[in-house]
Amino acid sequence: MTTQNTDVLIIGAGLTGLTLAYLLKDLNIKTTIIEANNSIGGRIITRRNTNEAPLDLGATWLVPQQTNVLNLLKALNIEVFEQYYGKTAIYQPNPTKQPQLVSLPNNDSVSYRIKNGTQTLIETLKNQLDHTTIQTNTNAVSIQLKAENLEIQTNKQTFYSKYVVSTLPPALFNQNISVTPKLPSVITDVLTKTHTWMHNSIRVGFTYKTPFWKHPQSSGTIYANSGPIQEFYDHSNAEQSLYALSGFMSANMADLDQAKRKQLALEQLTSYYGDIALEYLSYEECVWKNQKHTTNTTDSFVMPKQNNGHPVYKTPYLNKKLFIAGAETSPLFSGKMEAAVTSAMYVFSSLKNSF
């Protein structure tokens, strides 16, 4: 097995890992990112089909209070645009009730999406990393403290690094990577019981030729307490020239096959819009439970948001050489893109004076 030396080894090429590498790039240090999947982005996925609206199947929305990620987007010259909700929503409280068209409350709050899809942020960050090595299909197996550095065994080679930053969901890190000497129980207990954002979510979307939901007696905003679709929104492009509906499907649909999920979703949409809902261009989905490099395999129940942003994630381990980072570790907007970027900034502030 070959060996490689680096100054900072980042485990995971999602938003936290790529942002950290971007922040480190001007420090004249060697940074390496390893990613277990064959593509980068972590919980950011955008499906793009020719002449159709891009569909985000992972992280999607931003709000004005999420200043760190919005400032990053501005620095990278990436545009955002306002999410269209309309003035009404289709609401179905339970299966025995007919869907209703209800008025949405008037408020000044807005949310944004990233032009051309959230993956634009991932692609732009990657293009900034001229001197950063990104190795896909490479997963860390173990981390061991040596005299002056850390030894990291992967499925392909051995790395020796001054610092290691894991950006994996904490529960996944705890399950898949052995650490020597063992981490103190104060951190391992929290790792095991930290909720993983998106771990059981199902994101689905349909693209269309026309925005048939945009008329006074309809809406592209759907809230349903029953049926496969729970929340749906207009997902048309920034220019409002390519059209789509996208949102969340019930986690109970995870064990069905894709064809059945699509069928049930179309039946629900048809009950709201009529047969025009069947005239879709494409259907895309992501069942996050099936993403083995995102979700751990334990059956133990963890409450939503449990231990997200726990104080133990502020402490580096193994002689202050190992950092546990990522969207679940930041206390503000935990699990969101803002938390991922904020976590990267925190680790950068800890590392920048070490070189």
From TrEMBL:
Residues in domain Amine oxidase?
106-345
Coiled-coil boundaries: none
- Pfam families annotated for this entry? Amino_oxidase (PF01593), NAD_binding_8 (PF13450)
The reply on keyword Transmembrane helix is yes
User: Which SUPFAM superfamilies does the UniProt entry name for this protein?
Assistant: FAD-linked reductases, C-terminal domain (SSF54373), FAD/NAD(P)-binding domain (SSF51905)
Keywords noted in UniProt: Membrane, Transmembrane, Transmembrane helix
Q: Which residues cross the membrane?
A: 6-24
The cross-references to InterPro entries, in alphabetical order and at most eight, read:
Amino_oxidase, FAD/NAD-bd_sf, Flavin_MAO
The UniProt entry's sequence similarity note says:
Belongs to the flavin monoamine oxidase family.
Name this polypeptide is given: FAD-dependent oxidoreductase
